[in-house]
Write a structure and sequence with these properties.
By secondary structure, this protein is α+β, with helices and mostly antiparallel strands. The chain has one helix and seven strands, in the order βββββββα. Strand 6 and strand 7 form a beta hairpin. The chain is globular.
Length: 67
Amino acid sequence: MQIVIRSHEVTNFASGVNVYITRLPVRWDKTVIVVMNEVRVGSPYLAECVSGGTPAANDRVKKVVRH
């Protein structure tokens, strides 16, 4: 199941971490959040836990996770 979170919505993904995502497709792969089918955010869901994808996609997700 794929979830798209619209502008300014807040979703509590795990462990009380709120992540703001604007029109990015998001899905779970066990305990990892997969954004845009290429960037992975692992526990504890911080910017330092972002990996994969193109450098531009990776940077975009890191910026979103930091907010």
